[in-house]
Amino acid sequence: MNALDYRFAKSNDIPQLVSLIINSAYREDQGKSWTNESKIILGNRISEVQLYLELTKSDFFY
Question: Rounded to whole angstroms, how far apart are CA atoms 39 and 15?
């Protein structure tokens, strides 16, 4: 098994973070899944601009 490498996200990662992780989590209809929110929340959780602004705030801590 290979070890995982972790790193802090960079600004060029934002499009993938927004589309693949943040806005798609809990959105797929898995039948009996209780974690599906697709019928409760419409639209995106966050935009690329919003994420960029949050990550570049002077008080953002990681």
Answer: 24
Q: Is it the case that residue 38 has pLDDT exceeding 70? A: no
What is the chain's length?
62
pTM of the model: 0.67
Residue 44, helix vs strand vs coil:
coil
Q: Which domain holds residue 39?
A: 11-55
DSSP state of 31: S
Residues 46, 6, 33, 19, CA torsion sign? positive
Q: Is residue 35 a part of any domain in this protein?
A: yes
Contacts for 8 with CB less than 8 Å, ≥ 6 apart: 62
Helix/strand number for the chain, H first, E second: 2, 0
